[in-house]
Amino acid sequence: MIVSGEDRRTDRPVDGRAELDNRSPIAVTEVRRSRTKSRGGIPRWLFKTFSPIGLIALWQVLSSVGVLDRATLASPAQIFDTALQMWQQGRLQDAVAVSTQRVLVGLALGLLAAVVLATLAGLFRRGEDLIDAPMQMLRTVPVIGLIPLLIIWFGIGEEPKVILIALAVTFPLYLNIYGGIRNVDANLMEAARTLGLGWFAQVRHVVLPAAMPSALVGLRYSLGSAWLALVFGETINATSGIGYEMNTAREFFQTDVIVVCLVLYAVLGLLADFIVRTLERTVLAWRPAFRGS
Amino acid sequence: MATSVSRELTGSDTGQYEKPAMVRGLTRRFGSRAVLDGLDLDIEPGQFVALLGTSGCGKSTLLRILADLDGEITGTVRVATRRAVSFQAPRLLPWKRVWRNIVLGLPGKADRARAEQALAEVGLSHRVDVWPKVLSGGEAQRAALARALVRAPDLLLLDEPFSALDALTRLKVQALVAELWQQHRCAVLLVTHDVDEALRLADRVLVLRDGRIAYDQPVEAARPRATDTPDFLAHRTELLSWLGVPAGDSATT
Ligand SMILES: Nc1ncnc2c1ncn2[C@@H]1O[C@H](COP(=O)(O)OP(=O)(O)O)[C@@H](O)[C@H]1O
Ligand SMILES: [Mg+2]
Questions:
Q1: Alpha carbon of A153 to those of A161, A163, B133, B242: distances in Å?
Q2: Domains of chain A, earliest start first
Q3: What is the ipTM, given to two decimal places?
Q4: Looking at the complex, does the CB of residue B89 fall below 8 Å from at least one CB of chain A?
């Protein structure tokens, strides 16, 4: 027969105190107090700049000692020079203006299409039947793959570029707005009805605000695809814009110009992201504040 | 399913005496199951009625029909045109400041002064401008009450408005509802599964069972009500047995 733990315990002294004394000591640690502010040291924002600056410095060193030659990748100093020159010639501003305009026009068209289609599909059963199925089918087509068709249909002027951007914007935005409208809390709709709100007021006060967070996610995403579409669109026979500068530079192996153009794309992308974030902060101020630690 | 739907939502503008709610032969089916089955109910002006019933017996279904949120019925339902509803969850629109929630749906421009007055009544003067998500559970439920009362309803429909609150807050909000009812004197239909709550607040207690009002008795004790009198305890035991809780098992809810 096996002697279980139970049985053995009964052999121990019955006196509670003795029992306590026999227990192995409990290890105790003091809880850590999280510091509210890191006093002294380097401020965080400054610290964060260390690694980018370090990388650029390393790049410059590699160029100066000849590990990186100019035809492979120009040095940061050369790139800065080139950017300055392009600015003085006005090429840089022109390129940015043309490209930004393409994005804005494409974005406006895509935004309009997405908002109208998603609202119709989201609010009306008939609209859903007519619009949603084709949209769900078309969204699986990679927009970039449409470039050959767009060139055949619209030539090589501004239209195919703007339309490409508009298409790239429409689908992510449509899906998110439609999803947002469809996921409106039915309880809130009911509450709105009991408050005597009519159909139009329900849409205005409940459906659209409820769809806004999701719509803004869609906007952020579609801005990302708008820049991608711009880059691709501008490689097709552009005669102006950032992509045009890049293509011309490629023919002459001007890696400095190419990097300047890449930086421009990145800065414009960051700017767009910043605008959406600001929009989110103001439009979605009602959501509980979220802050990373 | 609804064969002879007859809904008349009548206002006081007809001039004649009308009850805030009059229900005749109300039946509501989900599939083949009649959750409400030939139910009759009258509520008198200014009367505070508590509706008890076991979970899933159709209390919310009845309340939603009275709130005109569910029309798939047979029978006749006449309810006051001016009515307001407050649910278990406050259901405030999170994207509107508290005061805008209060006056949403009222005719005319959003009237801040009116919202402030309604919020003061429920003790939320300091919460006029915040977003609803910032409110605590009790505060949000009080705001929902203010939103209901600002409409000066003839009939106030409450669906378990206290059940999501912690015990202390619940007692406070219950007392607030009793106080507001004495000021506004609207008819109240309070859906609850809490017998003590019903007996403390209501003039009349109903038990919904098998799709009908199976029990309908006045509560005559003077207000504010003591919850330890023999009458109260006897009534409590009686109600609990109607709800299928045998005597002796009825500790507290
Ligand atoms: N929309 C619905 N579809 C199907 N069944 C429903 C629906 N709403 C309520 N029911 C059923 O009706 C019954 C009564 O529900 P309800 O009125 O919410 O009960 P309670 O008395 O707890 O408030 C439940 O059995 C529930 O499952
Ligand atoms: Mg219920």
A1: 12, 11, 51, 77
A2: 76-283 (1.10.3720.10)
A3: 0.86
A4: yes
